[in-house]
Design a protein that fits this description.
Layout lengths: L9 E3 L14 E3 L6 H13 L4 E4 L5 H12 L3 E5 L8 E5 L7 E4 L4 H11 L3 E7 L2 H5 L11 E6 L5 E5 L6 H9 L7 E5 L7 H13 L4 E2 L9 E4 L8 E3 L4 H14 L2 E5 L12 H7 L2 E5 L3 E6 L7 E3 L7 H8 L6 E4 L11 H11 L3 E5 L2 E5 L6 E3 L5 H13 L3 E4 L11 H9 L2
Parallel strand pairs: 2-14, 3-13, 6-7, 9-10, 17-18, 21-22
Antiparallel strand pairs: 1-22, 3-5, 4-5, 7-8, 10-12, 11-12, 14-16, 15-16, 18-20, 19-20
Helix pairs in contact: 1-2, 1-3, 1-6, 3-5, 5-6, 7-9, 7-11, 9-11
Bound molecules: shikimate-3-phosphate (S3P) and phosphoenolpyruvate.
The site of shikimate-3-phosphate has 12 residues, from helix 3 and helix 5.
Length: 429
Protein backbone atom coordinates (compact mmCIF):
# COMPACT_ATOMS: atom_id res chain seq x y z
CA UNK A 1 0.00 0.00 0.00
CA UNK A 2 2.58 2.53 -1.07
CA UNK A 3 0.65 5.41 -2.56
CA UNK A 4 -0.95 7.61 0.09
CA UNK A 5 -4.57 8.62 -0.40
CA UNK A 6 -3.85 12.16 -1.54
CA UNK A 7 -6.85 12.70 -3.83
CA UNK A 8 -9.62 14.50 -2.07
CA UNK A 9 -12.42 14.31 -4.67
CA UNK A 10 -15.16 12.07 -3.28
CA UNK A 11 -17.83 10.31 -5.34
CA UNK A 12 -20.96 9.12 -3.54
CA UNK A 13 -21.40 5.53 -4.72
CA UNK A 14 -24.98 5.12 -5.95
CA UNK A 15 -27.27 2.78 -4.03
CA UNK A 16 -28.99 0.21 -6.21
CA UNK A 17 -32.43 1.45 -7.15
CA UNK A 18 -31.41 5.09 -6.75
CA UNK A 19 -31.63 5.21 -2.99
CA UNK A 20 -35.18 3.88 -2.80
CA UNK A 21 -33.81 1.25 -0.44
CA UNK A 22 -30.62 -0.71 -0.02
CA UNK A 23 -32.10 -3.80 -1.66
CA UNK A 24 -33.22 -2.37 -5.04
CA UNK A 25 -32.54 -5.24 -7.44
CA UNK A 26 -30.65 -4.19 -10.56
CA UNK A 27 -31.99 -5.14 -14.00
CA UNK A 28 -29.65 -3.93 -16.71
CA UNK A 29 -27.98 -4.67 -20.01
CA UNK A 30 -24.42 -3.38 -20.05
CA UNK A 31 -22.24 -3.10 -23.14
CA UNK A 32 -18.78 -3.35 -21.61
CA UNK A 33 -15.86 -1.67 -23.38
CA UNK A 34 -12.99 -3.67 -24.89
CA UNK A 35 -10.48 -5.76 -22.97
CA UNK A 36 -7.30 -3.98 -21.91
CA UNK A 37 -5.26 -7.15 -22.21
CA UNK A 38 -6.56 -7.99 -25.70
CA UNK A 39 -6.32 -4.40 -26.98
CA UNK A 40 -2.73 -3.88 -25.83
CA UNK A 41 -1.58 -7.26 -27.19
CA UNK A 42 -3.32 -6.57 -30.51
CA UNK A 43 -1.62 -3.16 -30.75
CA UNK A 44 1.85 -4.60 -30.12
CA UNK A 45 1.33 -7.49 -32.55
CA UNK A 46 0.07 -5.08 -35.24
CA UNK A 47 3.08 -2.82 -34.64
CA UNK A 48 5.41 -5.80 -35.14
CA UNK A 49 3.57 -7.08 -38.24
CA UNK A 50 4.90 -6.85 -41.76
CA UNK A 51 1.59 -5.58 -43.16
CA UNK A 52 -1.16 -3.20 -41.95
CA UNK A 53 -3.82 -4.47 -39.56
CA UNK A 54 -7.14 -3.38 -38.05
CA UNK A 55 -8.39 -3.36 -34.46
CA UNK A 56 -12.14 -3.02 -34.24
CA UNK A 57 -13.91 -1.74 -31.10
CA UNK A 58 -10.57 -1.12 -29.35
CA UNK A 59 -10.55 -0.05 -25.72
CA UNK A 60 -9.89 3.67 -25.33
CA UNK A 61 -8.72 3.96 -21.74
CA UNK A 62 -5.65 5.21 -19.91
CA UNK A 63 -3.67 1.98 -20.40
CA UNK A 64 -4.49 1.55 -24.08
CA UNK A 65 -3.85 5.22 -24.85
CA UNK A 66 -0.47 4.93 -23.12
CA UNK A 67 0.20 2.02 -25.49
CA UNK A 68 -0.89 3.92 -28.62
CA UNK A 69 1.13 6.95 -27.47
CA UNK A 70 4.23 4.81 -26.99
CA UNK A 71 3.93 3.04 -30.34
CA UNK A 72 3.27 6.30 -32.18
CA UNK A 73 6.37 7.79 -30.52
CA UNK A 74 8.33 4.86 -31.99
CA UNK A 75 7.04 5.66 -35.48
CA UNK A 76 4.00 3.35 -35.76
CA UNK A 77 1.01 4.80 -37.62
CA UNK A 78 -2.27 4.34 -35.73
CA UNK A 79 -5.13 5.96 -37.63
CA UNK A 80 -8.78 6.36 -36.72
CA UNK A 81 -11.12 4.53 -39.09
CA UNK A 82 -14.36 2.60 -39.37
CA UNK A 83 -13.00 -0.86 -40.15
CA UNK A 84 -12.76 -2.60 -43.54
CA UNK A 85 -16.45 -3.60 -43.67
CA UNK A 86 -17.60 -0.14 -42.62
CA UNK A 87 -18.92 -1.24 -39.23
CA UNK A 88 -17.72 -0.03 -35.84
CA UNK A 89 -14.95 2.29 -34.81
CA UNK A 90 -11.48 0.99 -35.50
CA UNK A 91 -7.78 1.69 -35.47
CA UNK A 92 -5.68 0.98 -38.56
CA UNK A 93 -2.12 0.15 -37.56
CA UNK A 94 0.68 0.59 -40.07
CA UNK A 95 4.24 -0.13 -39.12
CA UNK A 96 7.20 0.44 -41.38
CA UNK A 97 9.97 -0.05 -38.84
CA UNK A 98 10.35 1.11 -35.25
CA UNK A 99 12.47 4.19 -34.66
CA UNK A 100 14.09 6.20 -31.90
CA UNK A 101 14.85 8.53 -30.35
CA UNK A 102 11.59 8.36 -28.46
CA UNK A 103 10.31 8.67 -24.92
CA UNK A 104 7.69 6.26 -23.61
CA UNK A 105 5.44 7.04 -20.63
CA UNK A 106 4.36 3.70 -19.12
CA UNK A 107 2.10 5.29 -16.48
CA UNK A 108 1.28 2.42 -14.14
CA UNK A 109 0.34 0.02 -16.94
CA UNK A 110 1.91 -3.43 -16.54
CA UNK A 111 1.22 -4.22 -20.18
CA UNK A 112 3.10 -1.10 -21.33
CA UNK A 113 6.05 -1.16 -18.89
CA UNK A 114 6.67 -4.87 -19.52
CA UNK A 115 5.59 -5.44 -23.14
CA UNK A 116 7.51 -2.59 -24.74
CA UNK A 117 11.17 -2.91 -23.65
CA UNK A 118 11.68 -6.09 -25.78
CA UNK A 119 9.89 -4.31 -28.65
CA UNK A 120 12.24 -1.34 -28.23
CA UNK A 121 15.27 -3.58 -28.84
CA UNK A 122 13.98 -3.85 -32.43
CA UNK A 123 13.91 -0.07 -32.88
CA UNK A 124 16.60 1.89 -34.65
CA UNK A 125 17.67 4.41 -32.02
CA UNK A 126 17.29 4.96 -28.27
CA UNK A 127 13.93 4.57 -26.51
CA UNK A 128 13.63 6.06 -23.04
CA UNK A 129 11.08 4.63 -20.57
CA UNK A 130 9.61 6.38 -17.55
CA UNK A 131 6.38 6.14 -15.58
CA UNK A 132 4.41 6.83 -12.39
CA UNK A 133 6.17 6.46 -9.01
CA UNK A 134 4.39 3.10 -8.49
CA UNK A 135 5.87 1.80 -11.78
CA UNK A 136 9.32 2.12 -10.15
CA UNK A 137 8.20 -0.33 -7.45
CA UNK A 138 6.46 -2.98 -9.57
CA UNK A 139 8.62 -5.97 -10.58
CA UNK A 140 10.28 -5.65 -13.97
CA UNK A 141 13.28 -7.88 -13.38
CA UNK A 142 11.95 -10.54 -15.75
CA UNK A 143 12.32 -7.98 -18.54
CA UNK A 144 14.76 -5.31 -17.36
CA UNK A 145 16.27 -4.16 -14.08
CA UNK A 146 14.13 -1.14 -13.26
CA UNK A 147 12.81 2.18 -14.51
CA UNK A 148 13.81 4.78 -15.60
CA UNK A 149 15.68 3.19 -18.47
CA UNK A 150 16.95 3.95 -21.97
CA UNK A 151 17.21 1.11 -24.48
CA UNK A 152 19.59 1.57 -27.39
CA UNK A 153 18.08 -0.72 -30.02
CA UNK A 154 20.04 -1.63 -33.12
CA UNK A 155 17.04 -2.66 -35.22
CA UNK A 156 17.43 -6.39 -34.45
CA UNK A 157 18.05 -8.85 -31.62
CA UNK A 158 19.44 -12.37 -31.73
CA UNK A 159 16.95 -13.97 -29.29
CA UNK A 160 17.40 -17.68 -28.51
CA UNK A 161 17.09 -19.40 -25.11
CA UNK A 162 16.30 -17.31 -22.04
CA UNK A 163 15.56 -18.26 -18.41
CA UNK A 164 13.25 -16.14 -16.29
CA UNK A 165 11.38 -16.45 -13.03
CA UNK A 166 7.82 -15.36 -13.81
CA UNK A 167 6.33 -16.30 -10.44
CA UNK A 168 5.63 -12.64 -9.61
CA UNK A 169 3.97 -11.84 -12.96
CA UNK A 170 2.75 -13.85 -15.95
CA UNK A 171 3.53 -10.78 -18.05
CA UNK A 172 7.25 -11.72 -18.06
CA UNK A 173 6.45 -14.78 -20.19
CA UNK A 174 3.93 -12.92 -22.36
CA UNK A 175 6.25 -10.04 -23.24
CA UNK A 176 9.08 -12.25 -24.39
CA UNK A 177 6.76 -14.43 -26.47
CA UNK A 178 5.13 -11.43 -28.16
CA UNK A 179 8.38 -10.04 -29.54
CA UNK A 180 9.88 -13.51 -30.06
CA UNK A 181 8.95 -14.06 -33.74
CA UNK A 182 10.84 -10.90 -34.65
CA UNK A 183 14.10 -12.00 -33.02
CA UNK A 184 16.67 -13.56 -35.41
CA UNK A 185 16.57 -16.96 -33.68
CA UNK A 186 13.06 -16.67 -32.28
CA UNK A 187 12.89 -17.37 -28.57
CA UNK A 188 12.83 -20.19 -26.05
CA UNK A 189 11.49 -19.05 -22.68
CA UNK A 190 12.20 -21.32 -19.73
CA UNK A 191 10.34 -20.31 -16.56
CA UNK A 192 12.38 -21.28 -13.48
CA UNK A 193 10.17 -20.46 -10.48
CA UNK A 194 6.92 -21.80 -9.06
CA UNK A 195 3.83 -21.70 -11.31
CA UNK A 196 3.35 -18.23 -12.90
CA UNK A 197 0.11 -16.53 -11.87
CA UNK A 198 -2.61 -15.66 -14.34
CA UNK A 199 -1.96 -18.51 -16.80
CA UNK A 200 -5.01 -17.51 -18.92
CA UNK A 201 -3.11 -14.34 -19.85
CA UNK A 202 -0.21 -16.45 -21.14
CA UNK A 203 -2.71 -18.53 -23.15
CA UNK A 204 -4.17 -15.27 -24.48
CA UNK A 205 -0.69 -14.27 -25.69
CA UNK A 206 -0.14 -17.65 -27.36
CA UNK A 207 -3.59 -17.64 -29.05
CA UNK A 208 -3.17 -14.11 -30.34
CA UNK A 209 0.34 -14.88 -31.65
CA UNK A 210 -0.96 -17.93 -33.50
CA UNK A 211 -3.79 -15.83 -34.96
CA UNK A 212 -1.21 -13.58 -36.65
CA UNK A 213 0.71 -16.51 -38.07
CA UNK A 214 3.35 -17.21 -35.39
CA UNK A 215 4.41 -20.73 -34.56
CA UNK A 216 4.39 -21.26 -30.79
CA UNK A 217 5.06 -24.46 -28.84
CA UNK A 218 3.77 -24.57 -25.28
CA UNK A 219 3.72 -26.98 -22.34
CA UNK A 220 0.01 -27.46 -23.10
CA UNK A 221 0.65 -28.41 -26.75
CA UNK A 222 2.92 -31.30 -25.77
CA UNK A 223 6.12 -29.35 -25.04
CA UNK A 224 8.27 -29.51 -21.91
CA UNK A 225 6.81 -28.14 -18.66
CA UNK A 226 7.52 -24.43 -18.19
CA UNK A 227 9.01 -23.97 -21.66
CA UNK A 228 7.52 -21.87 -24.46
CA UNK A 229 9.15 -21.67 -27.95
CA UNK A 230 8.48 -19.13 -30.68
CA UNK A 231 9.82 -19.69 -34.19
CA UNK A 232 11.21 -16.63 -36.03
CA UNK A 233 8.99 -15.33 -38.81
CA UNK A 234 6.95 -12.43 -40.14
CA UNK A 235 3.66 -11.56 -38.42
CA UNK A 236 0.54 -11.00 -40.51
CA UNK A 237 -1.70 -7.94 -40.41
CA UNK A 238 -5.19 -9.00 -39.31
CA UNK A 239 -8.63 -7.51 -38.81
CA UNK A 240 -9.55 -8.28 -35.22
CA UNK A 241 -12.54 -7.31 -33.11
CA UNK A 242 -11.69 -6.69 -29.47
CA UNK A 243 -13.75 -8.70 -26.95
CA UNK A 244 -15.50 -6.92 -24.07
CA UNK A 245 -13.41 -6.77 -20.89
CA UNK A 246 -14.74 -9.60 -18.73
CA UNK A 247 -12.76 -8.46 -15.68
CA UNK A 248 -14.66 -5.20 -15.86
CA UNK A 249 -17.92 -7.02 -16.62
CA UNK A 250 -17.33 -8.53 -13.17
CA UNK A 251 -18.58 -5.34 -11.53
CA UNK A 252 -21.95 -5.70 -13.17
CA UNK A 253 -22.26 -9.43 -12.41
CA UNK A 254 -21.36 -8.60 -8.81
CA UNK A 255 -24.13 -6.00 -8.81
CA UNK A 256 -26.63 -8.70 -9.79
CA UNK A 257 -25.38 -10.95 -6.97
CA UNK A 258 -25.35 -8.25 -4.29
CA UNK A 259 -28.82 -6.92 -5.13
CA UNK A 260 -30.48 -10.19 -6.19
CA UNK A 261 -30.98 -8.71 -9.65
CA UNK A 262 -30.21 -9.53 -13.29
CA UNK A 263 -27.53 -8.27 -15.66
CA UNK A 264 -27.02 -9.00 -19.35
CA UNK A 265 -23.56 -8.64 -20.92
CA UNK A 266 -23.71 -8.66 -24.73
CA UNK A 267 -20.87 -10.20 -26.79
CA UNK A 268 -19.59 -12.54 -24.04
CA UNK A 269 -17.82 -15.14 -26.17
CA UNK A 270 -18.35 -18.87 -25.60
CA UNK A 271 -14.61 -19.36 -26.11
CA UNK A 272 -12.25 -16.83 -24.64
CA UNK A 273 -8.87 -16.81 -22.91
CA UNK A 274 -9.89 -13.96 -20.61
CA UNK A 275 -9.67 -14.93 -16.92
CA UNK A 276 -13.02 -13.20 -16.35
CA UNK A 277 -14.74 -16.18 -17.97
CA UNK A 278 -14.10 -18.05 -14.69
CA UNK A 279 -16.71 -15.79 -13.07
CA UNK A 280 -19.49 -17.89 -14.55
CA UNK A 281 -18.38 -20.71 -12.25
CA UNK A 282 -17.17 -18.69 -9.24
CA UNK A 283 -20.24 -16.46 -9.00
CA UNK A 284 -22.52 -19.47 -9.52
CA UNK A 285 -20.85 -21.14 -6.52
CA UNK A 286 -21.50 -17.92 -4.61
CA UNK A 287 -25.24 -18.05 -5.28
CA UNK A 288 -25.96 -16.79 -8.81
CA UNK A 289 -26.94 -18.55 -12.02
CA UNK A 290 -26.31 -17.79 -15.67
CA UNK A 291 -27.27 -18.52 -19.23
CA UNK A 292 -24.69 -18.14 -21.98
CA UNK A 293 -25.90 -17.94 -25.56
CA UNK A 294 -23.99 -17.02 -28.69
CA UNK A 295 -24.70 -13.37 -28.25
CA UNK A 296 -24.71 -12.66 -24.51
CA UNK A 297 -24.36 -13.74 -20.89
CA UNK A 298 -27.41 -13.32 -18.67
CA UNK A 299 -26.49 -13.48 -15.00
CA UNK A 300 -29.01 -13.58 -12.15
CA UNK A 301 -28.50 -13.21 -8.41
CA UNK A 302 -30.68 -15.33 -6.12
CA UNK A 303 -30.82 -12.86 -3.27
CA UNK A 304 -28.46 -14.94 -1.14
CA UNK A 305 -24.67 -15.01 -1.37
CA UNK A 306 -22.52 -17.88 -0.12
CA UNK A 307 -18.95 -17.73 1.09
CA UNK A 308 -16.31 -19.47 -1.00
CA UNK A 309 -12.92 -21.09 -0.47
CA UNK A 310 -11.06 -20.67 -3.75
CA UNK A 311 -7.57 -20.47 -5.24
CA UNK A 312 -7.53 -17.38 -7.48
CA UNK A 313 -3.92 -17.69 -8.69
CA UNK A 314 -5.09 -18.28 -12.28
CA UNK A 315 -7.50 -15.37 -12.24
CA UNK A 316 -5.87 -12.90 -9.85
CA UNK A 317 -7.34 -9.71 -11.26
CA UNK A 318 -10.81 -10.94 -10.23
CA UNK A 319 -9.85 -11.00 -6.52
CA UNK A 320 -10.99 -7.48 -5.56
CA UNK A 321 -14.50 -7.94 -7.00
CA UNK A 322 -14.85 -11.39 -5.39
CA UNK A 323 -13.74 -9.93 -2.05
CA UNK A 324 -16.43 -7.24 -2.31
CA UNK A 325 -19.16 -9.82 -2.94
CA UNK A 326 -17.81 -12.10 -0.18
CA UNK A 327 -18.29 -9.26 2.32
CA UNK A 328 -22.07 -9.78 1.91
CA UNK A 329 -22.09 -13.59 2.09
CA UNK A 330 -23.90 -15.81 4.61
CA UNK A 331 -20.61 -17.56 5.54
CA UNK A 332 -16.87 -16.71 5.58
CA UNK A 333 -14.66 -16.86 2.49
CA UNK A 334 -10.99 -17.69 1.96
CA UNK A 335 -9.30 -16.35 -1.18
CA UNK A 336 -5.96 -18.09 -1.81
CA UNK A 337 -3.04 -18.17 -4.23
CA UNK A 338 -2.75 -14.42 -4.77
CA UNK A 339 0.27 -13.27 -2.72
CA UNK A 340 1.57 -11.42 -5.80
CA UNK A 341 -1.37 -8.99 -5.61
CA UNK A 342 0.91 -7.10 -3.22
CA UNK A 343 2.85 -6.11 -6.38
CA UNK A 344 -0.06 -4.86 -8.48
CA UNK A 345 -1.19 -1.23 -8.92
CA UNK A 346 -1.08 -1.06 -5.12
CA UNK A 347 -0.67 -3.72 -2.41
CA UNK A 348 -4.17 -5.02 -3.03
CA UNK A 349 -4.27 -7.43 -0.07
CA UNK A 350 -3.39 -4.67 2.39
CA UNK A 351 -5.79 -2.14 0.85
CA UNK A 352 -8.74 -4.54 0.67
CA UNK A 353 -8.20 -5.47 4.31
CA UNK A 354 -7.83 -1.92 5.58
CA UNK A 355 -10.55 -0.26 3.54
CA UNK A 356 -13.27 -2.94 3.96
CA UNK A 357 -12.54 -3.06 7.69
CA UNK A 358 -12.92 0.72 7.91
CA UNK A 359 -16.49 0.26 6.63
CA UNK A 360 -17.14 -2.19 9.50
CA UNK A 361 -15.90 -5.38 7.79
CA UNK A 362 -13.80 -8.20 9.21
CA UNK A 363 -11.06 -9.09 6.73
CA UNK A 364 -7.71 -10.66 7.62
CA UNK A 365 -4.70 -10.80 5.34
CA UNK A 366 -3.16 -14.27 5.06
CA UNK A 367 0.22 -15.24 3.59
CA UNK A 368 -1.30 -15.72 0.13
CA UNK A 369 -4.69 -14.05 0.21
CA UNK A 370 -7.61 -12.94 2.34
CA UNK A 371 -9.98 -14.36 4.90
CA UNK A 372 -13.31 -12.54 4.89
CA UNK A 373 -15.91 -12.87 7.66
CA UNK A 374 -19.08 -11.04 6.58
CA UNK A 375 -20.36 -8.34 8.93
CA UNK A 376 -22.89 -5.55 8.64
CA UNK A 377 -21.09 -2.71 6.82
CA UNK A 378 -21.63 1.03 7.22
CA UNK A 379 -20.92 4.10 5.11
CA UNK A 380 -17.61 5.93 5.00
CA UNK A 381 -14.79 6.91 2.69
CA UNK A 382 -13.02 4.18 0.70
CA UNK A 383 -9.52 5.16 -0.46
CA UNK A 384 -8.42 3.79 -3.81
CA UNK A 385 -4.60 4.28 -3.86
CA UNK A 386 -4.69 5.01 -7.63
CA UNK A 387 -5.97 1.48 -8.24
CA UNK A 388 -8.94 1.09 -10.59
CA UNK A 389 -9.98 -2.23 -9.08
CA UNK A 390 -10.18 -0.75 -5.57
CA UNK A 391 -12.69 1.84 -6.84
CA UNK A 392 -14.66 -1.03 -8.34
CA UNK A 393 -14.80 -2.82 -4.97
CA UNK A 394 -16.21 0.22 -3.33
CA UNK A 395 -18.81 0.78 -6.03
CA UNK A 396 -20.07 -2.78 -5.47
CA UNK A 397 -20.25 -2.27 -1.70
CA UNK A 398 -21.94 1.09 -2.21
CA UNK A 399 -24.83 -0.54 -4.08
CA UNK A 400 -26.06 -2.06 -0.82
CA UNK A 401 -24.60 0.18 1.90
CA UNK A 402 -25.75 3.75 2.37
CA UNK A 403 -23.23 6.59 2.61
CA UNK A 404 -20.23 5.02 0.87
CA UNK A 405 -17.94 7.52 -0.85
CA UNK A 406 -15.11 6.72 -3.25
CA UNK A 407 -11.95 8.79 -3.20
CA UNK A 408 -10.55 9.38 -6.72
CA UNK A 409 -13.10 7.35 -8.68
CA UNK A 410 -11.38 8.73 -11.81
CA UNK A 411 -8.72 6.05 -11.33
CA UNK A 412 -11.16 3.61 -13.00
CA UNK A 413 -10.19 5.22 -16.34
CA UNK A 414 -7.16 2.88 -16.40
CA UNK A 415 -9.30 0.23 -18.05
CA UNK A 416 -12.92 1.40 -17.93
CA UNK A 417 -13.70 4.76 -19.55
CA UNK A 418 -16.63 6.78 -18.16
CA UNK A 419 -17.19 4.35 -15.29
CA UNK A 420 -19.03 6.71 -12.89
CA UNK A 421 -21.54 7.70 -15.58
CA UNK A 422 -22.03 4.11 -16.78
CA UNK A 423 -22.47 2.77 -13.23
CA UNK A 424 -24.94 5.44 -12.16
CA UNK A 425 -26.91 5.26 -15.39
CA UNK A 426 -27.12 1.46 -15.61
CA UNK A 427 -27.42 0.54 -11.94
CA UNK A 428 -28.05 3.62 -9.85
CA UNK A 429 -30.58 6.45 -9.80
O1 LIG B 1 -0.94 -9.89 -19.37
C1 LIG B 1 -1.92 -9.24 -18.97
O2 LIG B 1 -2.64 -8.58 -19.75
C2 LIG B 1 -2.23 -9.26 -17.52
C3 LIG B 1 -1.68 -10.22 -16.70
C4 LIG B 1 -1.94 -10.28 -15.23
O3 LIG B 1 -0.80 -9.76 -14.59
P1 LIG B 1 0.03 -10.58 -13.46
O4 LIG B 1 0.43 -11.88 -14.06
O5 LIG B 1 1.17 -9.65 -13.18
O6 LIG B 1 -0.89 -10.75 -12.31
C5 LIG B 1 -3.15 -9.44 -14.84
O7 LIG B 1 -3.25 -9.31 -13.45
C6 LIG B 1 -3.09 -8.06 -15.49
O8 LIG B 1 -4.20 -7.30 -15.14
C7 LIG B 1 -3.12 -8.19 -17.01
C1 LIG C 1 -2.84 -5.93 -12.52
C2 LIG C 1 -3.49 -5.14 -13.39
O1 LIG C 1 -2.92 -4.34 -14.31
P1 LIG C 1 -1.50 -4.26 -15.02
O2 LIG C 1 -1.75 -4.56 -16.47
O3 LIG C 1 -1.04 -2.85 -14.81
O4 LIG C 1 -0.59 -5.28 -14.38
C3 LIG C 1 -4.99 -5.07 -13.40
O5 LIG C 1 -5.54 -4.44 -14.32
O6 LIG C 1 -5.64 -5.63 -12.49
Amino acid sequence: MTANPTHTALWPAPLAGGGAGPTGAVDATVQVSGSKSVTNRALVLAALASEPGWLRRPLRSRDSLLMTGALRAMGVGIEEGVGPDGSGEAWRVISSGLQGPATVDVGNAGTVMRFLPPVATLADGPIRFDGNPRSYERPLHGVIDALPLTLHGGGALDGGPVEIDASSSSQFVSVLLISGPRFNQGLEVQHTGSLPPSMPHIRMTVDMLRAVGAQVDTPESGGEPNVWRVTPGALLGRDITIEPDLSNAQLFLAAALVTGGKVVIPDWLAHTTQPGDALRDIFTQMGGSYELTEKRLEFTGSGSIHGIDVDLGEVDELTPGIAAVAAFADSPSTLRGVAHLRLHETDRLAVLTKEINELGGDVTETADGLHIRPRRLHGGIFHTYDDHRMAAVDAIIGLAVEGVQIENVATTAKTLPDFPELWAERLGA
